[in-house]
Amino acid sequence: YILLAQLFGGAAYVSNIIYDIGAGLREGQITAALLRPLDYQAAMYVQNVAQLAIDLILKLPLAVFIWFVYGLDLPSDPVVWLAFVVSLLLGHAVMFCFDWIIGCVGFYSTEIWGLSVLRYGFGLFFSGALIPLDMMPDWLRSVATLLPFSQALYLPVSILAGINPVSAMPRIWLIQIGYLAVLLVASRLIFARAVRVVTVQGG
After folding, report:
1. Rounded to 10 degrees, what is the CA torsion of 39, 40, 42, 46?
2. Beta carbons within 10 angstroms of residue 59's beta carbon
3. I need a labelling partner for 198 at 20 to 30 A (CA). Which of 84, 100, 166, 180 fits?
4. pTM summary value
């Protein structure tokens, strides 16, 4: 599990959304982005999915190295890999919406670097990147399960690691879709409110 978490962790739960929004406000680029005839959030999501794909492709040499040196046993069933990809994309979308909400703080603040560092620290721990959630005390595991970070890393990786069987996928996907629906609506509403107070710091 730890090897898989390290392999997919950075691509799954690490996002540049908070930094991109903050930089756009600080440098004035967000003005042009908001004036384009494209939905700003949708455009950023497509960009992040493309970045996820690139990051995963760049991890292939590392995957081969881990497989050769450490004997990483990857599943051979294509159904397991399909379940993993679906769960990974849903979890990534959940984290995108979550980070988007945090990024909206940038419209009210002159600097959100500290907030992005805090979010990274929480994500690193509660996503299961350091230790599996199953090894946490019951109360801490309950907290981690309620937070969105586990949707992006622990759940997808647990499929490859055999912790969650393919038969549990409908339940897991339903949970992820529920998270996504709530955070998507919240992110749209919060952004629509935050953009009214936009203040460009530079240009």
Report:
1. 130
2. 17
3. 180
4. 0.86
